[in-house]
Write a structure and sequence with these properties.
About 35% of the residues lie in helices and about 20% in strands. The protein is of the alpha/beta class. It has two domains: about 170 residues, Rossmann fold; about 110 residues, 2-Layer Sandwich (Pantoate--beta-alanine Ligase, Chain: A,domain 2). The structure holds pantoate (PAF). Pantoate binds next to strand 2 and helix 6.
């Protein structure tokens, strides 16, 4: 914790599982919002959504925990921003009752967990292919935080669409007694999706990074003409950004089934690399997510947009 002292009366800051249990003193509905801290307006939207769903009598718990298990060896765990004082203010403004900010030892009392949740094939696609083991680490900590906070409802951002899909699947496959709610992505006025990583973007990086959201919205504008037209529209925007300074380096652009992240049609890394997949014809309208990941400067960004593919679209 750094900086000036904060009135932590509301939300109440608790550090241990025992303290957390003591906050469940009266029976009432509980919602959990899991975060790694560095709270921004996107997190505030999750907390507000939880508060709105539960009403004033429910209890909203925000967890702040930078989970070492979901960082790869080349990903800088130490670089992750830790801003608990500011986080408490955001949590308070958004309507949280409790902030649970445990230590690593509190969450992993036996050291590195020997038993973990395996995300399976769905966790190996797209983000999982670029970040091996990441989703096993995410699901393991989400499972633990669900056990520790025991909520009726847990809210997660649609910004991390593959994570959301995997959490929904884990809850279904492993019978967690909780409802999972997805909350729409919050964007800057120019379209950039809010992310804790945006703080690492220089003004020039940020200009290149805008291609992600611009590409997604270009696809949305073209989707009435079908999946391929949508993908081509996004691809054009991304390809142009690969020629900027600094260049956008696209990891993938893909149209996926939001339930399992299998590819509907698309081209991994198509802005300057691999080719296109699938061509079977769908019988009816398809709910899809257009997902993109790219690097600019030293920062890796993801974004996505739900799209409704017209009936009979190629898939
Ligand atoms: O989305 C995040 O911030 C994290 O992956 C989560 C869900 C809090 C688990 O550490």
């Amino acid at each position: 914790m750094t900086g000036t002292a904060v009135d932590t009366a509301t939300p109440r800051l608790v550090r241990t599982a025992a303290e957390l249990r003591a906050t469940a003193d009266v029976p009432r509905q509980r919602a959990t919002v899991m975060t790694m801290g560095a709270l921004h307006a996107g997190h505030a939207a999750l907390i507000s959504a939880a508060r709105e769903r539960l009403g004033p009598r429910g209890q909203v718990v925000v967890t702040v925990f930078v989970n070492p298990l979901q960082f790869g060896p080349s990903e800088d765990l130490d670089r992750y921003p830790r801003t608990l004082d500011a986080d408490l203010l955001v949590a308070r403004e958004a309507g949280a009752d409790v902030v649970f900010a445990p230590s690593v030892d509190e969450v992993y009392p036996g050291g590195e967990p020997q038993v973990r949740v395996a995300a399976g094939p769905m966790g190996e696609r797209f983000e999982g292919a670029y970040r091996p083991g990441h989703f096993d680490g995410v699901l393991t900590v989400v499972a633990k935080l669900l056990h520790l906070t025991a909520p009726d409802l847990a809210c997660f951002g649609q910004k991390d669409a593959q994570q959301l899909a995997l959490i929904r699947r884990m809850v279904r496959d492993l019978n967690f007694p909780v409802e999972i709610a997805g909350v729409p992505t919050v964007r800057e006025p120019d379209g950039l999706a809010l992310s804790s990583r945006n703080r690492f973007l220089s003004p020039a990086d940020r200009e290149s990074a805008l291609a992600l959201s611009r590409g997604l919205f270009a696809a949305q504008g073209a989707v009435a003409d079908g999946a391929d037209a949508a993908l081509a529209a996004a691809d054009d925007v991304l390809a142009a950004a690969t020629r900027l300074d600094p260049p956008l380096i696209v990891d993938y652009l893909a149209l996926v089934d939001p339930a399992d992240f299998t590819e509907l049609t698309g081209s991994a890394g198509s802005a300057g690399s691999a080719g296109s997949a699938g061509s079977a014809v769908s019988p009816g309208p398809i709910e899809a997510v257009l997902a993109v990941a790219a690097r600019v400067g030293g920062t890796r960004l993801i974004d996505n947009l739900p799209l409704h593919l017209p009936s009979g679209a190629p898939r």
